[in-house]
Specification:
five-stranded antiparallel sheet; Jelly Rolls; 314 residues; mainly beta; elongated
Amino acid sequence: MRYAAVVAVLMALAPAIASSNSPDSKDPDCRGECVGNGNARDGRECFGDSEVQTLSAILPVLAANGTSCPEQHPIVGVLLNHAMVGDRCNRIDVFYCATAVSGLAEGVRIDRDPRECFNADETANFPDLTRTIQANGTLCPSDRPIMGGVKLQEANGCWRAPVVYCQSRELLVKSDFEAYRPPSLGAPGWVSDSSRRAPAKSETHQPHTGSQNGACSVTTSLDCGMYQEVTAPAPGEYTFTVYANANRAGGLVGVNVNGVTVATSKVIARGFGNYAPYTMTFHASEGETIRVWMFSPATYGYVVIDDASLTRPF
């Protein structure tokens, strides 16, 4: 089962904990059960004083604006951010779930019998969570070795981890172009760069391996390019490798992070079918947008790529 990355993960949450925001707490800002670490959100709504007296009055507005708990579990509490002087808006910047996800809830799902009992502070430390779970015998399969997400459920102040999600190091989709029907491209995967004047394509003309490759092949003075974007799931060093070839100078492959070019390599003209690997290592922080790309200049000829790989650290 795959889910989109949960934006409001436990590692980037408000500092409310069960001991101060339990259902028996006298905290006047809590509506409902403020258990564990709250999930941060962008409080776009403007509630009047009369509209924030009960949880049941608040929830329909949050749901209409896209706020929800993982796996359709209900929101059990919200934290009120009171109107400031001169501002008549009460806002909800934190919400609480009996179930939450730390990390990325995607990849291979492994259900487990949780023996650990994590407190609210411990749930905010994803590396420690995974180390404890692994020490207790839950391991990811060798083909997807990264424990990239953990589902957490709270009961009576004890957070347990009944599910972990295992992921491969590979972040690109359709990286070898075999899944396309030539000349198509498209997300998720490689996209023709609309800022260029000629479209990129998939083809069967010059593969490195398999039967297909990606290409920018122009017969007029038009530039061309393609790219693929992913969100960095963790901070650290990343490595982009791609096999490329060209029949004239000016071709490039490279990487942007949040719109800034961090690595490039010139594609050397080597003759038909004679690919070479190009490898670039760069740093990205969690949540940043990584764009890997190929560029072909506005001169007659081609640049082709195949068998790309973007890997991340553990």
